[in-house]
Specification:
63% helix, two-stranded antiparallel sheet, single chain, 2 strands, Fumarate Reductase Cytochrome B subunit, mainly alpha
């Protein structure tokens, strides 16, 4: 029959943090992204790249092509609006996992760049609808749902929202390039999990 001391030791071992434990792959951990973060990351990346390419150069097109491209840009933006906000709120809630072996300085740079990128996305989400609405153009989801702006437009709001939208659009471009450069740096010069962890969650023990 096991002694009281032996039973206590067995209980202590069973509660040890070093023993393998089942962790959900959906949520982030201290060192890894979960499936929610990974899916939101790649969905947002595809949407933002598509919107940037579609929206770039609209002002330089003739009236009819510009109107068609603007309609496509707005419809995709409206369709993905909640996904992009979910991306922002989930990252603020989940914080920023730490890469094993990464210095505090490097982690803080990556985290700051990440949060600035989220801020720029939020700025685009807020200013984009105002650009369309204040220009007297309907916010439309492929012509199925429409929210009409004032017929005469609001010139001062249009100028303000357009300037903000353009600023944050350029910010997203440069911050994305910095983000990609950092990922390439880790891929080429560091033996860590930076690239792998944004594709598949790592189960920690």
């Amino acid at each position: 029959m096991p002694s009281a001391e032996s039973a206590a030791n067995q209980k202590k071992v069973s509660q040890s943090p070093h023993r393998p434990q089942h962790l959900s792959c959906n949520s982030d951990t201290g060192h890894s992204f979960g499936w929610i973060s990974i899916i939101l990351h790649w969905l947002s990346a595809v949407v933002i790249i598509a919107l940037w390419f579609i929206g770039d150069g609209i002002s330089s097109l003739d009236t009819e092509p510009a109107s068609e491209r603007r309609q496509l840009h707005v419809s995709i933006a409206v369709l993905s609006y909640l996904v992009l906000w979910a991306r922002i709120m989930w990252r603020l809630y989940s914080k920023h996992p730490w890469v094993r072996g990464q210095s505090s300085f490097t982690h803080n740079i990556a985290q700051t760049t990440h949060y600035l990128l989220l801020l720029a996305i939020a700025g685009m989400l807020c200013s984009g609808p105002l650009v369309v609405w204040s220009n007297g153009i309907a916010l439309s989801l492929f012509g199925v749902i429409e929210i009409h702006g004032p017929p005469e437009g609001i010139p001062w709001l249009l100028d303000l929202a357009s300037g903000v939208h353009k600023f944050f659009g350029q910010a997203i471009l440069w911050l994305t390039l910095i983000h990609i450069a950092g990922a390439i740096k880790h891929l080429m010069f560091h033996d860590d999990e930076t690239i792998a962890r944004i594709f598949i969650p790592k189960t920690e023990i």
